[in-house]
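COURSE: Structural Biology Practicum
ASSIGNMENT: Worksheet 4, Part C
STUDENT ID: 0417
INSTRUCTIONS: Below are two proteins. For each, the amino acid sequence is given first, followed by its structure token string. Answer the questions at the end about the second protein only.

PROTEIN I
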Amino acid sequence: MPALSRTALIMALGCALASGQAKPQAKPQTQTWPHPIPARVKDGSNGDLFVMTLGDVQTPLSQGSYDPTKDELTLLDGTLLPHYYRDTLKLKFFRPLDKSIFPVAPSGFCTWYYYYQNLDEGEVRRNTDWIAQNLKDYGAQIIQIDDGWQAEKADGGHGSRDWSSIDRHFPSGLASLAHYIKSKGFTPGLWIAPHGQSNDQVVQSLPGVFLRKPDGTSPSDTWEGKWLVDPSSEASQAYLKDLFSKFTAWGYDYLKIDGQPIVVDEYGKTQAFMQHPAEPDKLYRHTLDAIRSGIGPKRYLLGCWGLPVEGMGLMNGSRTGGDVVLGWEGFLTALAPTLQSYYQHNIAWYTDPDVMLLRAPLSLDQARVWASLHGLTGQALFASDRLPDLSRERVDILHKVFPATDIRPLDLFPAVRNKRIWDLKIQHLGRGYDVVGAFNFRQDRPDPLYLNWQELGLPANGPVHVFDFWNQEYLGAWEAGLALDLAPTSCRVLSLVPSDGQIQLVSTNRHLTQGWVDLQALHRTGSGFSGRSKVIKDDPYELHFAFPRGQNFEISQVSARSSSGALPVRITNHQGWATLRIASPRTQEVSWKVTFKPAGFYRYPTQTPVGLQVEPRGLDGVDLLWKDQYYLNAGYQVYLDGRLLGHSGSPHFPLRGLDPARSYTAEVRSVWEDGTESKGLKKAELTFTLAALLPDTTNLAQLDPVRAEGRGAEPRTFSVATRHREGLTAHAGSEVEFDLKGLFSTFSAQAAFDDSDRGKTPVTFVVLGDGRELWASAALPKTAGPKPFSLDVSGVKRLVLRATAKDAAPEDDDWLNAPHAAWLDPVLMKASK
């Protein structure tokens, strides 16, 4: 984010909110965008919470209302923040997104992340055919050809920056390929780095178009190309317009322009060689005006990569981060810009955190995590695997998140940490429900997570139905909250529906939004429901119904009809819930009815758990642990100091946000499906003080940061002098902050580089305690070897690790070539009493 750090922004917003009192928002009127929307401008009590909305949502989490037409934010206490996006968020060229032509973010396929520059015409056609058969009905719209279509390099390699001819692997030509894509019902898309050119002969034939030094050489030779368009030249404006007019004449209606931050940066460095020097951002926008004049207003323009905010208002979308790679590191590359730039999505433009990859070696859990990122946020959604090769399980994951939906942020501010609880609030057809993603981004260990209903804006003292979307199972109805087990690099996506004391529809299986995409009408009848749904050919459609807690019903009658007649259905009755399944031989709209009748309810008397103990986790939390119970139960209820925290299906529960010096009393009770708890004189109860449980030494890599900027500092194993060492990444430009709570006396670590480092730029390592510099290295090259240090951190509450590198510009594939620096063996020693 330019000009203002995210930390400074959140501090400013905190001051603005200090006098506000939280209260529910009045229901917004349904109207054409742009219209006022509910907003949060800072984190609430849980800094791990990331909130989105879909539909006309009302929530007590809202801290005010934002009017995009006026660019004005009004807090609940009446405080006005004028020009909020322009001035507070520092988006100089902000104007509300025009949704009249593109009402939602695009969904489709990109060739790059399987084929890279070794693409050919046959593979484009092969994937297009597969998508027509397997993904078109799910909402895929765009087939985008990436780098590799353009003229070959002088050595015969692919991927030049010469747009004057076409690679030999496209013998039918780009116009013919666009025609084929359109014949299958899709929009053809094309990648280009238009401001650059690598063919000297093309440059010589276009006087006045490209920047030149007095001696005729290029003043700008970058990833974008050997030569760079002069943005101040009339000839260059005509060149860009004609270039994009050619692409649209070929039939391409989705244009992805790459390397844009490089262009803006170079325009700041090459003023001396321009015909008419001016402010770099304004010159850059002149080039976008020329591109837009070549493609017209009805074609999609995507700026790429690394958040080219100077194009806001002229671009339809923005590729907000670097290129992903296949593997968990690739997902983390998509995660960072999602959290840091999502406040722009569906308000200023459609954000694009790069493609979604689902193929091996990603596990199925990891593929679900990546898909959930897109399904919960509604950002641009592009697959980039060789789709015919995906397994049935991975194709099913693909189906569950296509297409992108009209989701926008409630949180109109950038996140400063990898938030793990993503709450999508939905209002649709009279149904108000939450779809919550609970994530474990760590690779090194399981990480239980606690969902607090009150922190999510849900009623805390009444049952909330819980349905697990990816596992397609009902988990019961529970008060106060829920604890979840999360394996490394995994997630759970839950539908949360407050109980109204009647039978309720809690989920559908078509899309992760669980009703928004498929459900067209819903009516409650005297003993059941009727409705209309969009169903997909040969993909069984399921509706899941939950019963009031402690009561049981079963489906007694059901029907499903399309315009061509009755459709086959299947009923599954469970205790506490039931499923209606509809099969359809074609993609169509289906009307359905379901009727319920009372059924018996089985109960088992629960018994008191045994073996309760506590283990510290981090500096403000513990995990409660107890023995698996031999006798049947439906889980456990956990109390802290007499207050119900919520339900756990497993014999453990995470307690977080504790005061290390305070004494707490925890109690665990077994519970049955109807909410009946174990009772008796014997209790599973213990009293503890966290400070007394902490070990003498703590590895900093095991603690969760409270703030991370740049790419943060992720825990991982490094190879240093061929030895495997544990530590935290020290990406150039990163800053990460930990809350030590004044518990430690010494901090020691080593500043070092991984053996795989390819960067030549030295890195400066800095440690700060409560804002005061405690230690700083010189600018260290890899050849310097590890630099150990040990610091007195007595009384320090906020420890900051910062890594900087001079001239670490975002070019030349920096996500690969940036210095691979590390904070090795970062250890904290506990203060003596």
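PROTEIN II
(use this one for the questions)
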Amino acid sequence: MATMVGPGLSVRMHAVEIGLGPVTPSDVVAVAREGAAVTLSAEALAEIAATRKVVEELADDVEPHYGVSTGFGALATRHIPVERRAQLQRSLVRSHAAGSGPEVEREVVRATMLLRLSTLATGRTGVRPETARAYAAMLSAGITPIVQEYGSLGCSGDLAPLAHCALALMGEGEVRDARGERRPAADALAEAGIAPVTLAEKEGLALINGTDGMLGMLVLACADLRQLLRVADIAAAMSVEALLGTDAVFAPDLQALRPHPGQAASAANLRALLAGSAIMASHRTPDCTRVQDAYSLRCAPQVHGAVRDTLTHAETVAARELAAAIDNPVITPDGRVQSNGNFHGAPIGYVLDFLAIAVADLAAISERRTDRFLDQSRSHGLPAFLADDPGVDSGHMIAQYTQAGIVSELKRLATPASVDSIPSSAMQEDHVSMGWAAARKLRRAVDGLRRVLAIELLTAARGIDLRHPLAPAPATGAVRDALRATVPGPGPDRYLAPDIEAAVAAVSSGAVLRAAESAAGGLQ
């Protein structure tokens, strides 16, 4: 159960509790997208308090300790006197809150904050319990710091984005409140009854030194792609059916000859979706002279399956990262304060780039199936461009242009960000991951894929309608009917952009997937 508290943000009636163990992907989605509140377990607060004592014992130490009594990055050799160490932490946050460009989406900032809080809850960072509580209170109150597009190199973590979050915790900078209104952080905190935090030793560093932004975007992208892969199978099934293809190539024994798990899952979905199709039965006769379908139809399980297996690998990496405690220096369980390199974003950056490549190819095969519908020489009896009166009407001609434009953009977005590195901090940080950039382009790619699949669904549904009076399979027919709830069937040309947006909305809301599964059962 949820109640709306502002544009695009709902607050769930229960909270996600952060303990000593890792948060789950579903926790990330709940907090980021559904506005779930956040609490800290008693065990986590006890661990935070215990390791804070280690930092406090070092605070007056004459020996230098990075992040406690030294400068940062290339300035780590500068010893900071005791009386200036609180200022050290405030200055760190203020100087690192140096983002620029468009505002980052609210769900990304909330995911980032949740994952930083999860690391704080492990007790490995040395913050005070009251600092962690205040961070959790910001999330629960729906206060979202303004974070900007540019500023992170993905090493030492997502410094600038996390610094903007820490700045808001200090009562500085700007935020959006639960209503979505942009306002000074101090005012939003006061309204929510949250006292600004005056940072103590090491806390500034602990709040900004993590890969939480890129990880949050990876988790959200994985959740989206799990749904979109099933939608891709639905779209492919509708295209195979309406283009008078065959499902014989999806047989289990043929798929087992190449035992990739993703391929098997996709083929099983296609068989379930096409079961009982009168359209397909109509051309299973001795008169049919077609030997085999084009690759975009016949090889759908191989391509869709490879994307599935890539996603599974990315989810494995994400799960390991969710179990990580990233900070530098870190407070080890035996009480050592140890410098390390765990903040480097390479493991996340690689899979973000890998997914962008897979997304581009999944969109490309979808566009190729759509294009076959529009060419009389390849559509097996359908009118040119699926137009009502070809020549007078253009049908879906330009919808395919839109797809092609998106696919071309996705190919550019598939260029890896993680192979780039620009040295920073006077060559102290001489190799960086660019993982944040990889995550930002993957978000754009996932949105593009959703739109490409929506256009294939629209086109395939129109193709199915034009095969009337032959009936589609129960599952593909249910999807066609779900689309027809907001998009009219074949007829003279009309304003097409709203139809495309309605199809995108049907994909995003889960309406397409629910319709298919209502007839075919749960898809893999």
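ANSWER KEY EXCERPT:
Q1: Residues 1-12 have pLDDT under 50 and may be disordered.
Q2: The chain is about 55% helix and 5% strand.
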